[in-house]
Amino acid sequence: MDTRDNILRAATKVFAERGLGGGRINLISRAARSNDRMIYYYFGSKERLFIEVLEKVYRDMWDAESALALDLSDPVAALAQVVNFTMDHYLAHPEMLTILNNENLHEGKYVSRSKQLKALSSPALDLMSRIYSAGVEQGVFRKGVKPFELYLSILALNYFYVSNRHTLSAFLGIDLLGDSLKSWRRWVVEVITRAVQR
């Protein structure tokens, strides 16, 4: 792994733990076993580094999503596969959620500066469009559903569950990562499938 990638990985960890405000350059350089000068050399500023971290967490998700072996001859199963992939990705990458939560506190100030992120959203929506179109063509999905809203529903239902699991587990007195997780997975698949079925 080269120095730049090493810094990016270290910054992802530090920003996930401390946010943009607490993710100081010296902490990142120490975590990367590098020095402050190299961070400024590769990224120019802490803000630019944070933007690249945002790009990385989105790109990692899209790369994994695009590698899914979806069978469009069975659009219902393909849709369920995307639902479960999304949950799996959020659970495996909690740093993504904390970084995005932090960016939302900044009202999307940094993500809006990224040209790459606009490009990354397009393939994800195209994937959902292909699944939905296959379902309409086969007569299993109803017409009139916007693939964007379908995809956003999947993201929202899984994101909320994972990002709020600690507070909701305490508030509801239920371990949301225990048996409830299996039940929630089934529920989200059912909700999403019923939303599009004829």
Characterise this structure.
By secondary structure, this protein is an all-alpha fold. It folds into two domains: 1-44, Arc Repressor Mutant, subunit A; 47-196, Tetracycline Repressor, domain 2. Helices cover 77% and strands 0% of the residues. It has ten helices and no strands.
The helix/strand series, from N terminus to C terminus, equals HHHHHHHHHH
Number of domains: 2
Task: Classify the fold: give the CATH topology of the largest domain.
Answer: Tetracycline Repressor, domain 2
Radius of gyration, whole Å: 19 Å
The major beta sheet can be summarized as: none
Estimated share of beta-strand residues? under 5%
The second-level CATH architecture of the largest domain is Orthogonal Bundle
Structure class: mainly alpha
Kindly state the percentage of residues in helix: over 70%
Using DSSP, what is the number of strands?
0
Mean pLDDT over the residues: 93
Q: How would you sum up the global shape?
A: globular
Number of helices: 10
User: Any idea of the CATH class of the largest domain?
Assistant: Mainly Alpha
CATH superfamily (homologous) name of the largest domain: Tetracycline Repressor, domain 2
Q: Give the terminus-to-terminus CA distance.
A: 50 Å
Low-confidence stretches: none
What is the compact description of this entry?
The protein is mainly alpha-helical and 198 residues long. It has helices at 3-22, 25-31, 36-43, 46-66, 75-92, 94-105, 115-137, 147-163, 165-172, 179-196. Helices cover 77% and strands 0% of the residues.
